Amino acid sequence: MSRPDLNLLVTLDVLLAEGSVAKAARRMKLSPSAMSRALARLREATGDPLLVRAGRGLVPTPRAVELGGQVGRLVKEAEAVLRPAERLDLARLGRSFTLRNSDGFVENFGPALLARVAEEAPGVQLRFVPKPDKDSGPIREGAVDLETGVVGGSTGPEVRAQALFRDRFVGVARAGHPLCEGRITAARFAAGRHILISRRGLDRGPVDDALELAGLTRTVATVVGGFAEALALARGSDLIATVPERYTGTLREGLFTFTLPVKLAALTVSLLWHPRLDADPAHRWLRGLVKEVCRLSSPPFREGEEPMP
Length: 309
Description:
Blueprint: H1 7-18, H2 21-27, H3 32-46, E1 51-54, E2 57-60, H4 62-82, E3 95-101, H5 105-120, E4 124-130, H6 137-141, E5 146-149, E6 160-167, E7 169-173, H7 186-191, E8 193-197, H8 206-213, E9 219-224, H9 227-235, E10 240-244, E11 256-259, E12 267-273, H10 281-296
Parallel strand pairs: 3-4, 3-5, 8-9, 8-10
Antiparallel strand pairs: 1-2, 5-12, 6-12, 7-10, 7-11
Helix pairs in contact: 1-2, 1-3, 1-4, 2-3, 5-10
Protein backbone atom coordinates (compact mmCIF):
# COMPACT_ATOMS: atom_id res chain seq x y z
CA MET A 1 0.00 0.00 0.00
CA SER A 2 1.44 3.38 -1.01
CA ARG A 3 1.99 6.02 1.65
CA PRO A 4 -0.63 8.84 1.54
CA ASP A 5 0.41 12.39 0.70
CA LEU A 6 0.33 14.09 4.10
CA ASN A 7 0.22 17.51 2.42
CA LEU A 8 -3.42 16.70 1.67
CA LEU A 9 -4.20 17.12 5.38
CA VAL A 10 -3.39 20.83 5.14
CA THR A 11 -5.46 21.10 1.97
CA LEU A 12 -8.43 19.36 3.61
CA ASP A 13 -8.15 21.59 6.69
CA VAL A 14 -8.31 24.75 4.53
CA LEU A 15 -11.14 23.42 2.33
CA LEU A 16 -13.28 22.57 5.36
CA ALA A 17 -12.56 25.94 6.96
CA GLU A 18 -13.39 27.95 3.80
CA GLY A 19 -16.19 25.79 2.34
CA SER A 20 -15.14 26.98 -1.10
CA VAL A 21 -12.61 25.75 -3.64
CA ALA A 22 -11.94 29.30 -4.85
CA LYS A 23 -11.39 30.73 -1.35
CA ALA A 24 -9.23 27.76 -0.34
CA ALA A 25 -7.15 28.24 -3.51
CA ARG A 26 -6.56 31.93 -2.73
CA ARG A 27 -5.58 31.12 0.89
CA MET A 28 -3.07 28.49 -0.23
CA LYS A 29 -1.88 30.62 -3.17
CA LEU A 30 -2.95 27.99 -5.70
CA SER A 31 -5.04 28.21 -8.89
CA PRO A 32 -8.69 27.06 -8.62
CA SER A 33 -7.93 24.19 -11.01
CA ALA A 34 -5.01 23.01 -8.82
CA MET A 35 -7.27 23.12 -5.75
CA SER A 36 -9.98 21.17 -7.64
CA ARG A 37 -7.41 18.50 -8.48
CA ALA A 38 -6.36 18.36 -4.81
CA LEU A 39 -10.01 17.90 -3.77
CA ALA A 40 -10.30 15.07 -6.27
CA ARG A 41 -7.28 13.37 -4.75
CA LEU A 42 -8.78 13.80 -1.27
CA ARG A 43 -12.04 12.20 -2.41
CA GLU A 44 -10.11 9.28 -3.87
CA ALA A 45 -7.98 8.86 -0.70
CA THR A 46 -10.94 8.98 1.72
CA GLY A 47 -13.51 7.27 -0.45
CA ASP A 48 -15.95 10.12 0.28
CA PRO A 49 -17.04 13.23 -1.70
CA LEU A 50 -16.25 15.38 1.40
CA LEU A 51 -17.72 18.60 -0.06
CA VAL A 52 -20.85 18.58 -2.19
CA ARG A 53 -22.68 21.38 -3.97
CA ALA A 54 -25.71 22.92 -2.27
CA GLY A 55 -27.06 25.82 -4.28
CA ARG A 56 -24.14 28.12 -5.10
CA GLY A 57 -21.88 26.80 -2.34
CA LEU A 58 -20.38 23.60 -0.96
CA VAL A 59 -21.40 21.79 2.20
CA PRO A 60 -19.45 19.08 4.06
CA THR A 61 -20.59 15.49 4.12
CA PRO A 62 -20.98 13.67 7.48
CA ARG A 63 -17.58 12.09 6.87
CA ALA A 64 -16.02 15.53 6.33
CA VAL A 65 -17.60 16.82 9.56
CA GLU A 66 -16.21 13.79 11.38
CA LEU A 67 -12.72 14.42 9.99
CA GLY A 68 -12.80 18.17 10.58
CA GLY A 69 -11.78 18.14 14.25
CA GLN A 70 -9.13 15.47 13.75
CA VAL A 71 -7.56 17.18 10.76
CA GLY A 72 -7.38 20.57 12.45
CA ARG A 73 -5.64 19.07 15.47
CA LEU A 74 -3.18 17.07 13.35
CA VAL A 75 -2.22 20.13 11.30
CA LYS A 76 -1.63 22.22 14.43
CA GLU A 77 0.52 19.46 15.97
CA ALA A 78 2.53 19.10 12.76
CA GLU A 79 3.12 22.86 12.64
CA ALA A 80 4.33 22.77 16.24
CA VAL A 81 6.75 19.95 15.43
CA LEU A 82 8.26 21.89 12.52
CA ARG A 83 8.41 25.20 14.38
CA PRO A 84 11.77 26.23 15.95
CA ALA A 85 12.05 25.28 19.62
CA GLU A 86 10.77 27.84 22.06
CA ARG A 87 13.23 29.67 24.27
CA LEU A 88 14.43 27.43 27.08
CA ASP A 89 12.80 28.25 30.42
CA LEU A 90 15.21 26.76 32.97
CA ALA A 91 13.03 27.67 35.93
CA ARG A 92 10.24 25.44 34.54
CA LEU A 93 12.41 22.73 33.00
CA GLY A 94 11.65 19.25 34.36
CA ARG A 95 14.06 16.67 33.03
CA SER A 96 16.54 13.97 34.04
CA PHE A 97 20.00 13.65 32.49
CA THR A 98 22.29 10.63 32.80
CA LEU A 99 26.04 11.32 32.98
CA ARG A 100 28.58 8.50 32.63
CA ASN A 101 32.00 9.09 34.19
CA SER A 102 35.05 7.38 35.63
CA ASP A 103 35.51 7.60 39.39
CA GLY A 104 36.86 11.00 40.34
CA PHE A 105 34.51 13.13 38.25
CA VAL A 106 31.65 13.15 40.75
CA GLU A 107 33.99 13.67 43.71
CA ASN A 108 35.77 16.61 42.03
CA PHE A 109 33.12 18.30 39.94
CA GLY A 110 29.80 16.87 41.18
CA PRO A 111 29.15 19.25 44.11
CA ALA A 112 29.71 22.41 42.05
CA LEU A 113 27.71 21.02 39.13
CA LEU A 114 24.76 20.05 41.31
CA ALA A 115 24.81 23.45 43.00
CA ARG A 116 24.66 25.25 39.65
CA VAL A 117 21.84 23.00 38.41
CA ALA A 118 19.84 23.57 41.60
CA GLU A 119 20.30 27.33 41.22
CA GLU A 120 19.44 27.58 37.52
CA ALA A 121 17.04 24.67 36.92
CA PRO A 122 15.71 23.20 40.18
CA GLY A 123 13.47 20.77 38.30
CA VAL A 124 16.43 19.03 36.64
CA GLN A 125 17.81 15.78 38.04
CA LEU A 126 21.34 14.54 37.30
CA ARG A 127 21.89 10.80 37.36
CA PHE A 128 25.56 9.75 37.60
CA VAL A 129 26.45 6.22 36.46
CA PRO A 130 29.88 4.50 36.46
CA LYS A 131 31.96 4.08 33.33
CA PRO A 132 33.45 0.56 33.30
CA ASP A 133 34.68 0.81 29.70
CA LYS A 134 34.97 3.13 26.69
CA ASP A 135 32.18 1.53 24.67
CA SER A 136 30.04 4.18 22.95
CA GLY A 137 26.99 1.89 22.95
CA PRO A 138 25.18 3.63 25.87
CA ILE A 139 25.52 7.03 24.15
CA ARG A 140 24.41 5.62 20.81
CA GLU A 141 21.41 3.85 22.36
CA GLY A 142 20.28 6.90 24.37
CA ALA A 143 20.95 5.36 27.80
CA VAL A 144 23.53 8.09 28.50
CA ASP A 145 23.13 11.80 27.74
CA LEU A 146 26.67 12.95 28.48
CA GLU A 147 29.98 11.24 29.14
CA THR A 148 33.47 12.40 30.07
CA GLY A 149 36.64 10.67 28.98
CA VAL A 150 39.59 10.54 26.63
CA VAL A 151 38.68 10.15 22.96
CA GLY A 152 40.20 6.94 21.64
CA GLY A 153 39.94 4.29 18.97
CA SER A 154 36.91 2.71 20.61
CA THR A 155 34.94 5.98 20.61
CA GLY A 156 32.10 5.77 18.09
CA PRO A 157 32.86 7.78 14.91
CA GLU A 158 29.55 9.66 15.14
CA VAL A 159 30.05 10.74 18.77
CA ARG A 160 30.55 14.47 19.31
CA ALA A 161 33.48 15.55 21.53
CA GLN A 162 34.37 18.86 23.17
CA ALA A 163 37.57 19.30 25.19
CA LEU A 164 37.01 20.03 28.89
CA PHE A 165 40.56 20.28 30.23
CA ARG A 166 44.11 19.05 29.84
CA ASP A 167 45.48 16.76 32.52
CA ARG A 168 48.76 15.11 33.41
CA PHE A 169 49.68 12.02 35.40
CA VAL A 170 51.21 12.39 38.85
CA GLY A 171 52.56 9.95 41.40
CA VAL A 172 50.77 9.45 44.71
CA ALA A 173 51.84 7.82 47.98
CA ARG A 174 50.72 7.92 51.60
CA ALA A 175 51.83 10.76 53.86
CA GLY A 176 55.13 9.76 55.43
CA HIS A 177 56.11 7.45 52.60
CA PRO A 178 59.91 7.21 52.02
CA LEU A 179 59.47 9.11 48.73
CA CYS A 180 58.35 12.16 50.73
CA GLU A 181 61.98 12.82 51.65
CA GLY A 182 64.63 13.82 49.15
CA ARG A 183 64.65 14.06 45.38
CA ILE A 184 62.46 11.57 43.58
CA THR A 185 64.55 10.06 40.82
CA ALA A 186 63.42 7.54 38.24
CA ALA A 187 65.44 4.87 40.04
CA ARG A 188 63.83 5.59 43.44
CA PHE A 189 60.40 5.66 41.85
CA ALA A 190 60.96 2.36 40.02
CA ALA A 191 62.29 0.68 43.17
CA GLY A 192 58.93 1.03 44.95
CA ARG A 193 55.97 -1.33 44.75
CA HIS A 194 53.25 -0.05 42.45
CA ILE A 195 49.51 -0.14 41.76
CA LEU A 196 48.56 -0.49 38.10
CA ILE A 197 45.18 0.88 37.04
CA SER A 198 43.63 -1.00 34.13
CA ARG A 199 39.93 -1.48 33.43
CA ARG A 200 40.89 -4.30 31.07
CA GLY A 201 43.08 -6.07 33.61
CA LEU A 202 46.36 -5.51 31.74
CA ASP A 203 49.65 -6.07 33.58
CA ARG A 204 51.53 -3.24 31.88
CA GLY A 205 50.89 0.44 31.22
CA PRO A 206 52.43 3.73 30.01
CA VAL A 207 54.56 4.06 33.17
CA ASP A 208 56.26 0.75 32.37
CA ASP A 209 57.01 1.93 28.83
CA ALA A 210 58.50 5.20 30.14
CA LEU A 211 60.65 3.38 32.69
CA GLU A 212 61.84 0.93 30.05
CA LEU A 213 63.19 3.85 27.99
CA ALA A 214 65.29 4.74 31.04
CA GLY A 215 66.50 1.15 31.40
CA LEU A 216 64.33 0.54 34.48
CA THR A 217 61.50 -1.76 35.47
CA ARG A 218 59.05 -1.60 38.37
CA THR A 219 57.22 -4.14 40.48
CA VAL A 220 53.44 -4.08 40.03
CA ALA A 221 52.07 -5.41 43.31
CA THR A 222 48.38 -5.21 42.31
CA VAL A 223 46.07 -4.29 39.43
CA VAL A 224 42.80 -2.41 40.03
CA GLY A 225 40.07 -1.08 37.77
CA GLY A 226 39.73 2.53 38.94
CA PHE A 227 41.34 5.58 40.51
CA ALA A 228 39.42 5.42 43.79
CA GLU A 229 40.58 1.85 44.45
CA ALA A 230 44.19 2.73 43.64
CA LEU A 231 44.21 5.76 45.92
CA ALA A 232 42.55 3.85 48.77
CA LEU A 233 45.29 1.23 48.57
CA ALA A 234 48.03 3.88 48.41
CA ARG A 235 46.53 5.61 51.46
CA GLY A 236 46.73 2.46 53.56
CA SER A 237 50.03 0.98 52.39
CA ASP A 238 53.46 1.75 50.95
CA LEU A 239 52.21 1.18 47.41
CA ILE A 240 52.58 3.93 44.80
CA ALA A 241 49.80 4.95 42.40
CA THR A 242 49.94 6.95 39.16
CA VAL A 243 46.75 8.91 38.45
CA PRO A 244 45.49 11.93 36.46
CA GLU A 245 46.05 15.07 38.51
CA ARG A 246 42.93 17.20 37.99
CA TYR A 247 40.54 14.29 37.66
CA THR A 248 41.51 12.95 41.11
CA GLY A 249 42.05 16.20 43.01
CA THR A 250 39.54 15.54 45.80
CA LEU A 251 40.35 11.82 45.99
CA ARG A 252 44.01 12.66 46.67
CA GLU A 253 43.39 14.83 49.73
CA GLY A 254 45.80 13.94 52.54
CA LEU A 255 48.10 12.00 50.22
CA PHE A 256 51.58 12.96 49.02
CA THR A 257 51.46 13.94 45.34
CA PHE A 258 54.62 14.34 43.29
CA THR A 259 55.68 15.04 39.72
CA LEU A 260 56.66 11.86 37.95
CA PRO A 261 60.40 11.47 37.27
CA VAL A 262 59.58 9.97 33.87
CA LYS A 263 57.76 11.63 31.01
CA LEU A 264 54.19 10.56 30.24
CA ALA A 265 52.03 12.11 27.55
CA ALA A 266 49.42 14.56 28.77
CA LEU A 267 45.77 13.70 28.18
CA THR A 268 42.71 15.69 27.16
CA VAL A 269 39.50 14.95 29.03
CA SER A 270 36.52 15.59 26.75
CA LEU A 271 32.76 15.83 26.97
CA LEU A 272 31.04 13.26 24.72
CA TRP A 273 27.45 13.06 23.42
CA HIS A 274 25.40 11.80 20.48
CA PRO A 275 24.76 14.20 17.56
CA ARG A 276 20.98 13.77 17.87
CA LEU A 277 21.24 16.00 20.99
CA ASP A 278 23.28 18.76 19.30
CA ALA A 279 20.38 21.16 18.86
CA ASP A 280 18.46 20.29 22.03
CA PRO A 281 18.40 23.56 24.07
CA ALA A 282 18.39 21.82 27.46
CA HIS A 283 21.27 19.56 26.47
CA ARG A 284 23.25 22.54 25.14
CA TRP A 285 22.71 24.30 28.48
CA LEU A 286 23.97 21.28 30.43
CA ARG A 287 27.03 20.89 28.19
CA GLY A 288 27.95 24.52 28.78
CA LEU A 289 27.44 24.13 32.51
CA VAL A 290 29.71 21.08 32.74
CA LYS A 291 32.41 22.85 30.75
CA GLU A 292 32.24 25.94 32.95
CA VAL A 293 32.30 23.94 36.19
CA CYS A 294 35.33 21.96 35.03
CA ARG A 295 37.11 25.17 34.07
CA LEU A 296 36.48 26.75 37.48
CA SER A 297 37.20 23.63 39.55
CA SER A 298 40.93 23.26 38.95
CA PRO A 299 42.35 22.00 42.28
CA PRO A 300 45.16 24.02 43.88
CA PHE A 301 48.63 22.50 44.28
CA ARG A 302 49.42 21.24 47.75
CA GLU A 303 52.67 20.79 49.63
CA GLY A 304 54.90 18.29 47.86
CA GLU A 305 53.49 19.15 44.43
CA GLU A 306 55.11 21.03 41.60
CA PRO A 307 53.27 23.30 39.16
CA MET A 308 51.99 21.68 36.01
CA PRO A 309 54.33 22.60 33.15
